[in-house]
Amino acid sequence: MDLDEAFRTVGEFGLYQKQALAIVVLAQVYMASQSMLIVLVGFTPHYHVEQQQQVPSGAQGLVQKVVFTEDVDSIVTEWFLIKQQAYKVSLAGSLFFAGLLVGNVVLGPLSDKVGRRPVYLSGLFLEVVFGYVTALAPSYEVFAVSRLLVGLMNGGIGVVSFVLSQEYVGKSYWAMTGTLTSLGFAVGIALFAALGYMIPPWRNLAMAANSFGLLSFLLSVTLPESPRWLYCQGQMERAEQVLHHMALRNGNAVTNLMLQRDAAATKVSKPKRGQPGLLQLALHPVLRIRTVVLMYVWYSCSLVYYGLTLGAGDSTGSRYVNVAMYGLVEVPAYPLCMYFINKHWAGRRKSMSGFLCLSGSACFCTVLIPANGGSVLSVTLLALVGKLMVSAAFNIAYIYTSELYPTVIRNAGLGVCSMSCRVGGIIAPFVPSMRAVHSSVPFTVFCLSGLSAGCLGLLLPETLDAAAAETLDQLTSPTRSRVLQSKVRLVQV
């Protein structure tokens, strides 16, 4: 039997898969706390500088004393990261996202070669270790380096954990498990805000947040290797053992489970002509065009999402409430996209493109509102609607991308798309400064990005109810003749 039939036999989403998914979602909660850590531990309270007269060695002089007017314990108050040193707070955040970018590109493809489980466990273990280094850092320099290393591990296991959440279950549940992992990340942001409110000292907060990772690692040791990865690597016996274990834990009596010995699955697990797996994204005729489209979609999602986040909310008020809202505002997007992507008249492709276009349209509507018309609330509301729409599109992009890439190269594809996503996140903070040209320029940029990505996404093939591709050869199968594939084959002929 093939893998899809095997999952139907052992249970596509039984008790064992639910327990495994809960462990993966807990890892998402931990990764969310690490992503948002700098927002609370790098908080800069109000302060003023006092001039004090001092007589050192018999000579009069003036000494400046920094006085913080708020009772806040952060890296700013401990290492006096103010004035000329204030850039170091942003630098620590930038180093984390730089680590994310590298981790997406390096660890994602690595898991396609050596396996999901070893990369996931080693990456999670190292992230916990570096997280404790962050909490115990004796100096800013150690703190900054630890944030880079935490980001490196975070970016890698973020991709791998998402793939595991899908490869542990039957394909009909991929949309749900992918959405639950994204939802876990959003809830993790809100939980981190609550944790920060209860534990204000920054070192104690970093230690407490890292406890999620330690618990997640201890539970993750029980996770098996992905049966889909084992199958596409030709390790049929190990894949059958994992599936038998799943069936046993699900309460299904399976006595004769034997996977189809597909020669293509064993041959294509190694890239053709000895090429590294990552190069297949550029050299394979179908994957090349598909990857370019997906990279732009991910880039636009990130640009619009983070750009609207910076401009939609008021920075005043409780920082804990602001961080919590940053996560909770995404929650309604997930049931919304879950409803549409499983409908035959919408599917993955139309839903993702539609949400992107709606996000761009909401940004366009803000341009039509007069600047001095007393409609600030309307602008804010439209910006939040735009963020809601792009959050739904972002979630669909994760699910859709994992379905568009074969198992043998899925992590490599997700890693490259995540890299373009990080580039969009890096550029996003600079877009609001375009108000110096005209007040409507930032929203115009978001509008054009959303609309163009939505239209370009329509070139991708639909994956709803389609069999999951395991190998590269299956991309050119006649049964998969859809938009991009058919065009490429015509060129080759």
TrEMBL record:
GO terms for molecular function: transmembrane transporter activity. The keyword Transmembrane applies. It comes from the Eukaryota. Keywords: Membrane, Transmembrane, Transmembrane helix. SUPFAM superfamilies: MFS general substrate transporter. GO terms for cellular component: membrane. It is found in: Membrane. Its main location: membrane. Residues 20-464 form the Major facilitator superfamily (MFS) profile domain. It is a multi-pass membrane protein. InterPro entries: MFS_dom, MFS_sugar_transport-like, MFS_trans_sf, Sugar_transporter_CS. Signal peptide: none annotated. The chain crosses the membrane at residues 20-43, 89-107, 119-138, 144-164, 173-199, 205-223, 289-308, 320-341, 353-371, 377-400, 412-431, 443-460. PANTHER family: SOLUTE CARRIER FAMILY 22 MEMBER. This is Solute carrier family 22 member 15.
